[in-house]
C-alpha cells in the first residue's frame, strides 16, 4: 500500500527536469523531498498529482497505475494536495474555504441529488461542524465567518492545509507549506503533519527548508538537477556531500 513513482523522466525541450526518479509515500509515514531551486521537486510533485504526465516511468497508488489519470479521479482515490501559493477565494469566509475541501470521493448519485431540502441542510450543518473543528485545530481564527483575506500569509497556508485534510485523504501532498511563515505557524504546521501521519495518512512534504523536513520525516529524498542524489534516513541525507554541496552552491549564488 503506497503512492509511488518509478523511473519518472520529464524533459522540457532540451532541459531534463527529471531523470529516472522514484519515490514512495507509505501510509502512516512522512516522506521528505528536498533540493535546491530548480532541482525538480515541483515537477515530481505535479506528476504524482496529475498536473504533469511523465514521459517515462509510471505513477501508481496501491499497485494501480494512475499515470494517465485525471486530477479529479486521483482526488477520489484519496490523494490531496496543497500549492506553493495558496489558491483560495479571499472573499469567502474561513469556514466556507475549508468546506470546499469536502470533495466527495465518489460522484453524487441521482438519489443523493433529490434528497429533501432538510436532509441537505443537515448535511451542510455536519460539514460546517467538521470545518470548525479543523479551524480550531489549526488555530486559524476565533471567527469562522471572517473573510479568508483577513488572515496572515502564514494562516492562509495553514488554511490550505486544513482544506486539503477536509476531504479525509489517504495521501497528503504538501508543496512548500512552510515558506514565508513565522515560528508559531510553523509549529502548528509541524503538529498537523505529525497528527496526519499518526492517523495513518501517507504524507509527502516538499520543502526548501531542510531542517524543517528533516525534523518531521521518517525518510528523505534529495533531488539535484532532476536526479536523486541521496535517500534514506534524514541524518544521512542532510550530511550527504552532494546535498551539502548543492545547498552551499545555491547560497553562494544568492550572496
Mean model confidence by pLDDT: 88
Name the CATH superfamily assignment of the domain at 91-104 and 113-170 and 183-199.
P-loop containing nucleotide triphosphate hydrolases
Helix content: 40-55%
Overall body shape: globular
Cross-sheet strand order for the largest sheet: 6-7-8-3-9-10
Strand content range: 15-25%
**H/E order of the elements?**
EEEHEEHEHHHHEHEHEEHH
CATH class of the domain at 91-104 and 113-170 and 183-199: Alpha Beta
Report the CATH topology name of the domain at 91-104 and 113-170 and 183-199: Rossmann fold
CATH architectural grouping of the domain at 91-104 and 113-170 and 183-199: 3-Layer(aba) Sandwich
Radius of gyration: 19 Å
| Count of strand segments | 10
- End-to-end gap: 44 Å
Derived from helix and strand composition plus strand pairing, the structural class reads alpha/beta
Number of helices: 10
Low-pLDDT regions: none
Largest sheet: 6 strands, mixed
Topology diagram in text:
Blueprint lengths: L2 E10 L2 E11 L4 E5 L6 H9 L6 E6 L2 E2 L5 H6 L2 E3 L12 H6 L10 H4 L3 H21 L15 H14 L4 E5 L7 H16 L3 E5 L3 H7 L2 E6 L2 E6 L1 H5 L2 H14 L1
Parallel strand pairs: 3-8, 3-9, 6-7, 7-8
Antiparallel strand pairs: 1-2, 1-4, 4-5, 9-10
